[in-house]
Amino acid sequence: MTDDRLLLRRARTACLALVTATVVATGAAGIAHAAPAPTPATSSVDDSFYTPPSPLPAGKPGDIIRSENLPTAITIPSPQGSVPAKATRIMYLSVDANGDPIAVTGYYLQPVSEWKGPGPRPVVAYAGGLHGQGDQCAASKLLQEGVTFSFPGGPMAEIEQIVTLNLVRSGYGVVSSDYMGGGTPGTHTFGNRVDQAHAVIDVARAALHLPEVSPEAKVAFAGYSQGGGATAAAAELVGSYAPELPLVGIYTGGVPSDLLREMNYLDGNRLGGVIGYALNGASYRYPEFKERVNTVLNAYGKQTMAQLSGECIVLTSARGKPSSRDWTVSHKSFGQLVTEDPILSKYVHMQDIGNLKPTVPVLLTGNPDDPTVPIVQERELYSKWCALGATSLQYEEIPFPVRLIGASGFGHVAGGISGFGRAASWLADRFAGKPAVTGCSRG
């Protein structure tokens, strides 16, 4: 069997396994099960929506450029029946890490049921986990299709609805970003601290401009994995970037807070291909970084980066355990090169989280058995934030109920399931106006 056919076979198997394992694990945690509709033979998404106007319209971060009705492919059954929601696809203004205006896409889910809590219906800005770097991996596209088998970059399933529609079931409006470069022209800047934080903060601002959302609605952020990195960075930046947001709290879990440490851990390990996402994203955003990377990558490395730029995470995970040593002219790992080269080091360490104090209540969680983002990163982030004088920081290590699963290849997903189970009650308390912890608390 050729390498391409073997990779394709692994990707199809991984996609089915990922969806199955996530749904089964979710059911074990008491969250509703996802039921995908039949997969369309061709894409049903009109890609013209994702092309921003040129030039971009004048406006402020969070202003909506365009919106449209978004048909969804997945419904979530629960003991009370299905969870209906009206979905809207949005394109909004944001600001990238270089300070330049940029158009970003995402979606908003409005529960059909009446909000029964006090005040206007709250909004959760949900930061999704890593989908991949290809445009077809964008969450708002997958929300419409459910599953894509597009190649060479697919397949991918939209498993985020396991979380988002359960938030809808709780009565919250849910808004989510595709992140910068996700679905839209350019490269998705995975791992970029400021890009990801601004995308999440500004999608929350955008939601408050929708006619079905009260501008006085309380807002919370929630995210795990890549979304954990995005919401953790948002916790550090929102006070200065968006002080007007009526933000009551931030849940962040599975946080890759130290990019170099995470790359070194994944290198030659499971999901080593994700390192390529980070290199592609930084090369796209920072010309100086791109110039230096082009001098250290060999022909195979450059070819691999080009392939990864169009892949979803399922296909990337099917690469096995790639080593960045195979990508470089010197055959040194990329982590080694970062420690030796001041330019590479500068841009990698610009993505570190833990250097600014969160000024809103934060719930930080991690899975002690996590095989993808080692728990040491959450422990160190907690220590750094506490040393900075965090206003309200609650940290909990939550293993998946079945420790064997929690430490398996699906352990990172399992940690997200456990974390969001805890976050549900924490978010409800914040929206209800109950006081959060003062200072730092470790559960």
Explain this structure:
Helix 11 (334-340) packs across helix 12. This protein has helices at 3-28, 139-145, 161-169, 193-207, 226-241, 259-266, 274-285, 287-296, 299-308, 313-317, 334-340, 342-349, 376-387, 403-406, 411-431, and strands spanning 35-36, 64-69, 74-75, 77-78, 81-82, 85-95, 101-111, 123-127, 147-148, 156-157, 173-177, 219-224, 247-253, 362-366, 392-397, 439-442. The protein has a ten-stranded mixed β-sheet with strand order 2-6-7-11-8-12-13-14-15-16, with helices on both faces. Strands 1-3 form a two-stranded antiparallel sheet. Mean pLDDT is 88; it is low at 1-42. Helices cover 38% and strands 18% of the residues. It is an alpha/beta fold. It contains 15 helices and 16 strands. It is globular.
Brief rundown of the structure:
The chain has helices at residues 3-28, 139-145, 161-169, 193-207, 226-241, 259-266, 274-285, 287-296, 299-308, 313-317, 334-340, 342-349, 376-387, 403-406, 411-431; strands at residues 35-36, 64-69, 74-75, 77-78, 81-82, 85-95, 101-111, 123-127, 147-148, 156-157, 173-177, 219-224, 247-253, 362-366, 392-397, 439-442.
